[in-house]
Amino acid sequence: MDYRQFGRSGLTVPVLSFGTGTFGGTNEFFQRWGQTDVAEATRMVDLCLDSGVNFFDTADIYSGGASEEILGQALKGKRDRALISTKATFRFNDDLNQVGSSRYHLVRACEASLKRLGTDHIDVYFMHGFDALTPVDETLRALDDLTRAGKIGYIGASNFSGWQLMKALATSERHGLARYVAYQGYYSLIGRHYEWELMPLGIDQGVGLMVWSPLGWGRLTGKIRRGQANQSGRIAAGGAEGGPPVSDEYLFGVVDALDAVAAETGKTVAQVALNWLLTRPTVCNIVVGARTEEQLKQNLGALGWTLTAEQVARLDAASHETPIYPYWHQKGFDERNPKPTVW
C-alpha cells in the first residue's frame, strides 16, 4: 500500500479508501448500489485492513444511517486500526432543522453518527454539500467546537464550488477556526472538470483531493464497450441515476484508450483508470467501492505499478475536453496565470 499526506495536515492516509455506500441498501436508491449485510461487510473490512486499506468512508444519508451502523459493527474490536470519514448536510429526516450546515443540525448529526458508528470520534468529517443559507462562520465555529471537543479529528468539504471552498478557507484563517484540509469530489477519466478551478485552488491552498466515483459512475469498469450491451453491474441495475451525462462517443473513445493501455500493461480497464488518477496533482486518496470481495480485490490491483508518461499522455488526450469560460481564456495568459500541466 502507498500512503500520502492528507492535504495540509499531519495525517497520513492510504491512497485507497473503501467506500461503504453499498452497505445496507435499505431504500430503493441505495439498493441499486448494493445490499451488503454485516457478515459480508466484516469480511470486506478485514480484507481491507489486511491489505493496508485502513480508511473507510461513509455518510449519514447512506441507506438512512444503515451504512454507518454496519460499518461500526464490522469494525468492532478493530476501531483503533481504522480511519473513518463520514458526512453531514443533506436532509436526514422530516425535521425542518435536520438539514444543512447550521450549528443546530451539525451538533446533532455528529452525535447521531458517533452513536451509529459505535465510536467516540470521527477522523474526518465532511460537509456533504454547501449550505448557502447558513453563515459560513456559523458552520466553521460549530465544526471547530466539535474538533476541540475531540469528536472530530479533521474537517473536509465535498461538492463545493471553488468560490465556496475559498470563502470557507478565508473565514477559517480570519477567525482562527478549524480548516478544511481535504476536498471530496468527483474526478475520473470521463469527468475532468475538477481540473479547471478546484485543482488550481487545491494546489494553491494545500487542500488534498479525496476522489469519489473514480470509475465514472461505473462506466469505466470494463463492462461498457463500443457495440456491447451492458448486462450486469451497477449501471444495468439503474445505479447510475444522478450521475453526470456522458455522450456515447466520448465514453467509447476513452474506453478504447483504456483498453489499449490495459492490453499493454496486463491490467484491467478499471485498474488503469484508477492508476491514472494517482498520477494527478492534489489527489491524496481514492474512494473505491465494491459489491463483492472479488471486486474489492480487483480494485486493489490498481496499486504496485506505474503507467508510463506516454500512456498517461494518451489517456489525457482521449479524455480531454475544452474548458468552459473563463478557463479557456486564461490559458492564453499562462505567462502570468499558469495552470496545472494536466490541462
Automatic annotation (TrEMBL):
One GO MF term attached to the UniProt entry: oxidoreductase activity
GO CC annotations, alphabetized: cytosol
Gene3D superfamilies per record: NADP-dependent oxidoreductase domain (3.20.20.100)
Pfam families hit by this protein: Aldo_ket_red
Transferase found in the keyword field: no
Keyword Isomerase in record: no
Keywords: Oxidoreductase
Domain NADP-dependent oxidoreductase: 25-318
PANTHER family: NADH-SPECIFIC METHYLGLYOXAL REDUCTASE-RELATED, OXIDOREDUCTASE
Descriptive protein name: Aldo/keto reductase
